What does this fold into?
Amino acid sequence: MLDLLQHIKDSNVTFKGDLEFVNDWQYFSLYPLVEHDQLTTTGPYAGSLSAFVAGTRLRSRYLHLLDAPSKPNKTSFWASDCNRVIETARYFAIGFFGLDWSPKAKLHVVPETPNLGGNTLTPGDTCAMYRSDLEEGHDYGLKQLIKFRSTYLPAVSARFYAQNDGLRFSDGEIYSMQEMCGFETLVRGSSPWCEAFTQEDWLNFEYARDVIHYYRAGPGNPYGAAMGWLWLNATTNLLVRGPSVGQIFFSFVHDGDIVPMLAALNLLPSTHHLPVTHREASRSWKLSQVVPMNGRIIFERLHCDGSALPATAKRQAQPKGPRQTPPEKADPYKSSFVRININDGVVALPGCANGPGSSCAVEDFAAFVRKRGEEIGGFRETCGLGRNASARITFLHQ
It folds into this structure.
C-alpha cells in the first residue's frame, strides 16, 4: 500500500476518469510509516471503538458469568504479542470489565516467537515446516492469490490506462487500491476508492480475500488444520470440564490465526478446493462473513434442564382401565451442549446440531474434535518439531 502511495506521488500527472478524485485526495494517516499496521482509533468504524462496543455487548450477554466484585480472583484473558492485538484486548476489557478493569482482570501477553512449539496463540510462527516450505507453506496463499487476481485485475488496469494517458499500475498496486477502500472507510467512514471499482470488481476482490486465507492457513493449506487444532483442542478440554475450571476465556489473535481453527473444526466444509481460474459463487468458504474486522468466534457451553423447552410430543389417548405409570425416560435436553456463535450469529456444526438452538452435546462435540485430531495428525509431527517441543496449549486456565 505504501508503494502505491509513492507511485501516485511520483507519477506527477492529473488523474482522470475513475481516479480523478486522486488529484485532491489525501492519505488518511498523517504518519503512514508509523501508523501502518496499527489499530485504528478514529472514525465511526475505528478498531478501538469496535473492540469497546464488542466488550460492552458481550458484557450484556454474559454478565452473569462474571465473579462477584468482592471475590479476589482476577479473570485471566490472553493476547498475542502484537501491539494492535494487545490494544484491541485492552479496549475490549474497558467495555467488558469496566473502565478500571485491572483489579478485576489480568491480560496475559503470549509471545509470537518460534520457540514456543504448540504452546502458542500464533502457531504460524512456531510451525517450522510451515515457515520453511516455500511451495505449500505460508506463502502458498499469496501464490494462489496472484493466480486468481490475474483473472480480473488486468481488465481494471486497462480501464485506468485508457482513462489516464497510458499510466500503468501493477496488479499488486490495483489490489492495494481495493484494500484502501476498506482501510480508509474504517478511519473516515467512507472512501472515494470504493467508487473507482465496479460491483463485479468487488465480488472478485471478496473472492480474492477468500483465496488467500484458504490457501495461506485454511483448508487449502496442508499445515492449516494442524495449527488450528491446538487452540480448538485446548478450548474443547475446557468445555468438557465445565464451569469448575472457569466461566469465561477470551483470546485475542490475528485473523490469520482464527482461520486455521476453522480448518481444524471443518465448519465450512467443501467437496473441493477453491479454484483460482475463476470465481466460485456457490462456495461455503466466505471469510468476509467469518473474520471481518473485529470478527469473533464464541464457543458457548449451555446447560439445559428441559423445563423451558416447548412440548413437542402429542398426548396419546389413554386406554380404559387403571392408569399405567410409564417408565421414566431420560430427557435428551437435560444435559450440556456446545453452541458456536460467529459474529452474533449461531452456526451449526455440520453433523452435530441436534441440541437446543443448533447446539451439539458436549460429549459429541468432544468426540468430533478428537476424531478431527486423528484425521489431521499431531502438530509436532506435521510441523517437523522435535519431541522436546510443546505439543499443546497449557496456559489457558483461570
